[in-house]
Write a structure and sequence with these properties.
With 195 residues, the protein is α/β, with parallel strands linked by helices. The protein is built from seven helices and five strands. It has a five-stranded parallel beta sheet. Strand 3, helix 3 and strand 4 form a beta-alpha-beta unit. The protein is elongated.
């Protein structure tokens, strides 16, 4: 059972006690957190451990464009033995070939979705996407495959949630397995593009 985001108006002890109760009642086998910053996650893990219901997974938003987990959270998860399953590793579809030429009329961004809006697809971001796509092509991959491999390059990331809506998207994701490694030069180039 995931607690999807910390609530600043509810004491953390109360939230963790509710998660513990759900497990004790047999309504869930395990608990997980999502979108908790490192310090709040540490506090939550300590409370859960004291209650006897450890947290097994944390689900942060993580992609080439969303890197807030890197400074502290991944270290915290490793320190506490908690897995990490990244959601939105393709930045709502921006890290695919879908938006290389702008916003298609039948796309998520054009549909009024809150997860990807036209305002988020700036020319600066599109330029980065195009440069990343060139690098992916040099690696013999689609941009989506390189973006997934990039998130999974770190052993502290247990898995990714791809949010596929078509079988072809699942096939593309699985195709990433053919080339998961990055050279130091490729990592440096990606960092340069993302600056």
């Amino acid at each position: 059972f995931y607690h999807h985001r910390p609530d600043p108006d509810t004491p953390l002890e109360e939230t963790m006690a509710a998660l513990d109760l759900i497990v004790r009642q047999g309504k869930a086998l395990y608990v997980g957190l999502s979108n908790y910053p490192a310090e709040r996650a540490r506090q939550a893990f300590a409370i859960l451990q004291q209650l006897g219901t450890p947290c097994v997974i944390h689900q942060p938003k993580y992609s080439m464009f969303e890197r807030w987990v890197e400074p502290e959270l991944l270290d915290t998860l490793e320190e506490h033995g908690v897995g990490s399953i990244a959601f939105s590793p393709l930045a709502g579809g921006m890290l695919t070939d879908r938006y290389l030429q702008g916003i298609p009329p039948d796309s998520r961004a054009a549909s009024g979705s809150r997860s990807l809006t036209p305002e988020q697809i700036t020319e600066t971001k599109l330029q980065k996407v195009r440069l990343l796509n060139v690098l992916a092509e040099r690696r013999g991959q689609k941009l989506s495959q390189m973006a997934l491999a990039w998130v999974l390059r770190n052993d502290r990331v247990t898995s990714v949630l791809i949010g596929a809506s078509k079988v072809s998207q699942i096939e593309d994701a699985v195709g990433m397995l053919a080339n998961r490694k990055f050279s130091a030069e490729e990592i440096a180039k990606i960092e340069q593009i993302l600056m």
